[in-house]
């Protein structure tokens, strides 16, 4: 077991994100003192992890709430089934929720914790790279609706987050790669050292036991921690910085693609495509240099993520993008780069630029 790293998320209700190998014994310490009952929210597919995990909480009354795997969990009916079970168990405000799973599980479980009795404590134990570097940190929770992704939810910060890299041993390679989508995103918006690491490391060596993967995970968490500490509820940044919206880099198109594909594409894959799209958009709308646009294609492509896409007609995607949370009235807003790690908001780009950027995405490098 290597020494764990602790990253503090310094919001008004600060909490720790603990990262390391074999650190699950820290779970008990992250739960609020006084919790007597714990509801573990976890997908059926991770059943093998459950028994040893529940043993860590052997001195408490443990209730297991099994939810569907992946994106199917992010549904209000699944949340309602969880509320019903918590009611049957008589869960009170001193009890706590623990999530064990990927980002879909932490989003759903966080939402259940946010809404039960108007909010009970939650500790996230993410089991994917993506959930470790992004979904479990920062307190965004929610479910999807037919109109789009994450359209119902709330901000509900965890009491703690435990990232045990040993849990990644069983994670399929495609899921590791998808998680790197959010990591590379952080490289472009805030921490160029991430890009240097990705550009100089053999991507095949980024396995769960790799020190470079650990450094990438820790750097991405640090980016997220700093951003949410400055603008937890996405009300805006200072000095022209987009504030928390910066974490949404590439997400306007990504969410539209996820909806258009009925969530058959991984979130991290859609984010990679969406980041190439906003780079192409920034090149047209405000002259982002071509070498930086191509660096997007190269960095996401190097780790095995898609950088081209033409799976839906532009009008369909545009209609979905209009319900993106960054939109205001009829005006679309995007986070774009002025330069590396210099993000700004682009409000109301022309439809010509939006279309041309989509055409460039379909055609690959231009
Ligand atoms: N709240 C936020 O701030 C935030 C940030 C980023 C992403 N998200 C959300 O996170 C979701 C994506 O998360 P994800 O990529 O983790 O997907 P996911 O939760 O769907 O998990 C991906 C797959 O990996 C499997 N899996 C999980 N852990 C495993 C393990 N240790 N071993 C083997 N298989 C394992 C799951 O069963 C699932 O099939 C999206 O819904 C996205 O919107 C939220
Ligand atoms: O934490 C944030 O803020 C983010 O935007 C992180 C994103 O990676 C994440 O996918 C988030 O769920 C998107 O949120 P939404 O507000 O666009 O639904
Ligand atoms: Zn995301």
From TrEMBL:
Positions with a binding annotation for NAD(+): 69-74, 103-107, 127-128, 140, 149
Main location: cytoplasm
Domain 3-dehydroquinate synthase N-terminal, first and last residues per copy: 65-176
Localization: Cytoplasm
Top EC class of this enzyme: lyase
Domain of life of the source: Bacteria
Keywords tagged on the record: Amino-acid biosynthesis, Aromatic amino acid biosynthesis, Cobalt, Cytoplasm, Lyase, Metal-binding, NAD, Nucleotide-binding, Zinc
Cofactor or coenzyme needed: NAD(+); Co(2+); Zn(2+)
Residues involved in Zn(2+) binding: 182, 251, 267
Pathway: Metabolic intermediate biosynthesis; chorismate biosynthesis; chorismate from D-erythrose 4-phosphate and phosphoenolpyruvate: step 2/7
Limits of the 3-dehydroquinate synthase C-terminal domain: 179-327
Reaction(s) this enzyme catalyzes, per UniProt: 7-phospho-2-dehydro-3-deoxy-D-arabino-heptonate = 3-dehydroquinate + phosphate
Entry note: cofactor: Binds 1 divalent metal cation per subunit. Can use either Co(2+) or Zn(2+).
EC number(s) per entry: 4.2.3.4
Family stated for the protein in its record: Belongs to the sugar phosphate cyclases superfamily. Dehydroquinate synthase family.
Function according to Swiss-Prot or TrEMBL: Catalyzes the conversion of 3-deoxy-D-arabino-heptulosonate 7-phosphate (DAHP) to dehydroquinate (DHQ).
PANTHER family xrefs: 3-DEHYDROQUINATE SYNTHASE (PTHR43622), 3-DEHYDROQUINATE SYNTHASE, CHLOROPLASTIC (PTHR43622:SF7)
Protein name per Swiss-Prot or TrEMBL: 3-dehydroquinate synthase
Source species: Nocardioides humi
